[in-house]
Amino acid sequence: MSMESANIDAFREEIRQRDAEIQSLREQLAACHAEKHCTLVPKLHNVDEKLAEIVKTSLTNVDILRYSRQLVLPEFGVKGQLNLSKASVLIIGCGGLGCPLAQYLAAAGIGRLGLLDYDVVEMSNLHRQVLHGEKREGMSKSASVVKTLTKLNSSIEYVPYKMMLNPGNALQLIQQYDVIADCSDNVPTRYLINDACVAAGKPLVSASALRWEGQLTVYNHKGGPCYRCLFPVPPPAETVTNCADGGVLGIVPGIMGCMQALEVFKLASGMDSSFSGIMLMFDALDGHFRNIRIRGKKSDCAVCGTNSELQILRDYEAFCGSSASDKCRTLTLLSGEERLTVQCYKQMLDDNVPHLLIDVRPQPEVDICHLDHSFHIPLSQLEDSSLNWSNVLTERLSNLRKSANAVDNKVIVICKLGNDSQKAVKILQEFSDRGAYTFIAKDIKGGLMAWSEKIDSNFPRY
User: Fold this and answer.
1) Calpha distance 7→62 (Å, rounded)
2) Of 57, 69, 306, 307, whose CB has the highest number of CB atoms within 10 Å?
3) Residue 53 confidence class, pLDDT cut points 50, 70, 90
4) Residues 452, 416 contacting (CB under 8 angstroms)
5) Cross-strand partners of 113
6) What is the dihedral of CA 158, 161, 166, 172, to 10 degrees?
7) Which is nearest to 142 in space by CA: 123, 164, 127?
8) Distance, CA of 90 to CA of 67 (rounded, Å)
9) What's the pLDDT at 38?
10) In the 8-state DSSP scheme, what is residue 248?
């Protein structure tokens, strides 16, 4: 007989003995209720407590069969499974990280799983958010995850929240769970989750994924640092990139979500964390994992420091200067007079107004789609003063003036959403002000996605 078979037989014998004990107690209790002066009553006044104790310290035959492959692990065992079955986890974000995290926690037998997401399923989610599907487009993400996971393990208590985490509800919600998993994709929400976890005394398993890279660490655990210990001041909003802006290979959040699941699993089952005070870095292009020891808890941290007066801020979007959303960010760097709507630009085309249209997106995005009359100078080249883009621009402006007899040199800049185009206009304005070749520079508000939505519905969206 194999060790696995022997262990399962031992589990089943324990269940048989427990069932017999429960049945005996129930029969004695029933007999006592039938007699007014039962001598057993003083001995059985705590029968309900005894029954509850037996039930919560035992596994059913179905549990043993379902979780047998992890029950036989000596580091985990029956005690770990029972701890897991009593534990509760709140997953904030049901996207690329949250889907694999939720799937493996449900499969492992977590007791209660909270799933929070304000958004609905979109077609662009499906390459990485693998618990959704084509027929669920427009459905709440949290409801979609519950629908899928119920088919996997119906014994779990699932609690979906279709809502946005905010300073008014964060602390009250987080207090109801044992472990918190941050699967969000924006800076304000990360700060809010951190502050609420410190206030509630909850460990925070945090991960992120962008392009080909992933990160993971555990905050606020056994005296370890919190998020603010590492990042006391938010980065400038214009320097922050999310998946919608910068892209992501779907497998990367899948890997990081599984790593998150492993850390949550350890904490919820009573094991120790591997990444408190350590940052896991993953490079998918090179296929490398590496661990970096991060700075410890700061005594002067504004949130978890020795003399800090912890409080949930009123407005994390104002604190970070960016939106608490994983949608494409919207920057405002130019005045209204320096920008064109797509309708105004369409009118320029209809009126044959002479101009140059510069597309400043990266080359892969230009390869996806572009307006035929545009020419390409990536923003990265415009930002690099050592590159000779100015000669190309000057030559094109000169040719435009000669061919169209243009009195004013107009340069219109376009990108995907109207963020990078604003940065480009700032650079071009400085170039024009230096007197090398004067022109008027404006950008198109909303970029090519606004063009697709409001002007040409056949233009691809991505």
Assistant:
1) 15
2) 57
3) very low
4) no
5) 89, 158
6) -50
7) 164
8) 22
9) 39
10) B
Q: Which amino acid does the sequence have at 125?
A: N
| Neighbouring residues of 331: CB distance < 8 A, sequence distance ≥ 6 | 237, 238, 419, 422
Alpha carbon distance, N-terminus to C-terminus of the chain: 57
> Is residue 204 within 8 Å of residue 182, measured between CB atoms?
yes
DSSP letter for each residue of 30-72 = HHHHH-TT-TTTTTTTTHHHHHHHHHHT---HHHHHHTHHHHT
For the chain, what percent of residues have pLDDT higher than 90?
A: 70
Cα dihedral 135, 138, 142, 145, rounded to 10, equals 10
pLDDT of 50 reads 46
- DSSP assignment of 158-199 equals EEEE-S---TTTHHHHHTT-SEEEE---SHHHHHHHHHHHHH
Q: Are 114 and 161 in contact (CB under 8 A)?
A: yes
Please indicate, yes or no, whether the overall pTM of this predicted structure exceeds 0.85. Answer: no
Q: Which residues of 5-33 are buried (b: 16+ CB within 10 A; e: fewer)?
A: eebbeebeeebeebeeeeeebeebbeebe
Q: Which two tokens stand for residue 284?
A: 């998918």
The whole-angstrom separation of Cα 443 and Cα 356 is: 11
Separation between Cα atoms, residue 262 and residue 270, nearest integer Å: 12
Q: Where are the beta strands (DSSP E) in 130-277?
A: 157-161, 179-182, 204-210, 213-219
Question: What counts of helices (H) and strands (E) characterise the chain?
Answer: 19, 13
The token pair that represents 213 in the structure block: 């890279």
Distance CA 170, CA 197 (A): 9
List, by residue number, the catalytic residues.
243, 415
Task: Please report, for residues 96, 121, 123, the alpha-carbon distance to residue 129 in angstroms, rounded to integers and kept in the order given.
Answer: 5, 9, 10
